[in-house]
């Protein structure tokens, strides 16, 4: 079973490992993104990981297999290595975020139906939809609340 821990020391090595988890996760779940788009977004991931208020990492055998970022009660990111999916780790991360970090809101890509279903299953409901993503790309977003 993976352990969860809030990270205060965001070393370059850890950030590199988490970017790898992000990339594997995105390739497995974000079919609407082209290879070029993944490559365009990837350079911004370390900045997001360094800047998010609270970073919780799930590790198995000392290696990161998932993470979430929370800012002021909002889930900003949650990514799992594809090999770690389907074992309750996403639920553990999100429930930790709700119980310990006050998560009540999140935004998810509408074109990622597995994630939308996951969040709905855990009690989140859509209250707003936009046609474009936050960077102006054509990826509809769903804004959800617990």
UniProtKB/TrEMBL annotation:
Signal peptide: none annotated. CDD domains: NAT_SF (cd04301). It holds the Pfam family Acetyltransf_10. It is an enzyme of class 2 (transferase). Its EC number is 2.3.1.-. Keywords: Acyltransferase, Transferase. InterPro entries: Acyl_CoA_acyltransferase (IPR016181), GNAT_dom (IPR000182). This is GNAT family N-acetyltransferase. It comes from Candidatus Olsenella stercoravium.
């Amino acid at each position: 079973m993976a352990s969860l821990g809030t990270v205060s020391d965001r070393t370059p090595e850890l950030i590199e490992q988490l970017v790898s988890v992000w990339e594997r996760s995105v390739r497995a779940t974000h079919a609407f993104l082209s290879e070029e788009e993944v490559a365009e977004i990837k350079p911004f991931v370390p900045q997001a990981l360094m800047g998010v208020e609270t970073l919780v990492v799930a590790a198995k055998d000392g290696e990161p297999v998932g993470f979430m970022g929370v800012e002021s009660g909002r889930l900003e990111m949650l990514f799992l290595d594809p090999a770690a999916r389907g074992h309750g780790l996403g639920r553990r991360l999100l429930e930790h975020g709700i119980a310990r970090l006050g998560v009540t809101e999140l935004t998810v890509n509408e074109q990622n139906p597995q994630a939308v279903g996951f969040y709905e299953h855990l009690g989140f409901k859509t209250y707003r939809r936009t046609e474009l993503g936050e960077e102006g790309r054509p990826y509809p977003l769903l804004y959800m609340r617990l």
